Protein 1
Amino acid sequence: MLYNFSLKYKEQLKEKNPHHVAIIMDGNRRWAKKKGKVCIAGHQEGFKALKKAVKFAIINNMKILTLYAFSTENRNRSTFEINALMELFLFALNNEVKNLKKYNIQLKVIGDITYFNNNLQKRINQIEKMTLKNSGLILNIAANYGGRWDIIQSVKKIIQKVQKGILNIEQIQENTLSKYLSTSNLLPVDLVIRTGGEKRISNFLLWQIAYSELYFTDVLWPDFNQYVFQNAIDFFISRERRFGGCKK
């Protein structure tokens, strides 16, 4: 009887889980430095943590997982590190296709992918099309992404609509801008997790996380696992979300 109650309780908790979780995956380079390794070793280990996060999201019936992989500001890093990251990105795309199919995952890359080389752009487009009809977890990889960039490109699209007479300026509302963001047609972000000990957003999903819960952990991203993820979920479940309103 106790076992059945426990199962029922776990299912009730799952129903309270966030639908859309976004993670700022921070700490790869510090992890490598602590281990006496080159920075790319941290990124490689971070890829393993990414796979664990995706697995946890699937098990816990999450609908959307958005991962901050490479920001527009990361382009200021060394050419060696950037090239190594792009090679790792291409490797991950090529080697995870089978798992995207197996687990019914829809992959979407959000950000300005024109920064990447032709081979990487082509592979991104191929896999996005290949997984477009998958109905399981939506996995967003934010690559060459910035929240300010996202808002600006949305505003530009709206201006074009106004100039063409398709949209009247008086019709522009909050949902108008949201419609043209890279996350259009997706559920709002419920929970943002940042690893690595820093307590800032770092230009990530600035518009989309207006009422998200924020969870910060000192755990470096390569050490992120299901237990750390569960702690973040427990924190989210404990929160009373009022969205600016009064307590009911």
Protein 2
Amino acid sequence: MAEKKFYSPLGGNEMPRFGGPATFMRLPAVELSDELDAAFIGVPFDIGTSNRPGARLAPREIRDESRMLRPFNVSTGADPFNSLTVADIGDVPINTFNLLKSIDIIESFYNEVADCGVVPLTLGGDHTIALPILRALAKKHGPVGMVHIDAHADVNDDMFGEQIAHGTPFRRAVEEGLLDCNRVVQIGLRGTGYSADEYDWSRDQGFRVVTAEECWHKSLAPLMEEVREKVGGGPVHISFDIDGLDPAYAPGTGTAEVGGLTVMQGIEIIRGCKGLNIVGGDLVEVSPPFDTSRATSVVAANLLYEMLCVLPGVNYHSR
């Protein structure tokens, strides 16, 4: 058996941070193979968005703003790059003129990723892409649990008469049997709606709904104990819409809602997933044209790194 090969991000003393490859954390760009344990993947897609566009540009911007990330997580002791074989395998070649064809392309791409046993960490893209990703994960693992961070439940039956858009992926995922509904938690939901029963459909499926107001002014570490109890016992996907955070922290998004989570709470949620059987993660809805300071992309890059750090098989050092 060949010795396991580890890839490491290009260090700041080897090449200035503003130089080097435009990959996530300046990791090697490699082809998909079963030698990888996890891979960063871009999905430059925003055909499904309903308000401000631009999420198609996010994978490139998030990669660029990941250049300051270093390999060791000093805060948690996680040492992902000496534990797992991780690389950047590039972008899914979507059809920018056809939403449904793009969904099929994404699903096919992620089927190959899942067949190789690689855990995908996805740089979106709008939230429509969660549906084909979940299709591929469920084909490999069966129905998955999910930790979903978002301002919106994304369980609309349709948008403008269309069944597939960024506000519908989890309605379709339930209908297609992709989710283990009793192992799904939605955190950060808030804002205005069309009726008083805005979140009842999610609750009726068995989802645990945690509104943003339930999170205000507190640590979410106790909540994540409940979440682990709820979603544990099977494969889990993390789906993080950047608008789950308050626009004070992440203004560069398509459907901003005030009163959201803090960056610290977002990190607590992801770190609270440690110990779960995480089979995938996505970070979606960053819109660089509305991210003039690029702060949103900086936050997104850090949250994706935190997802890497809680994957099964990552070793932790005492601090």
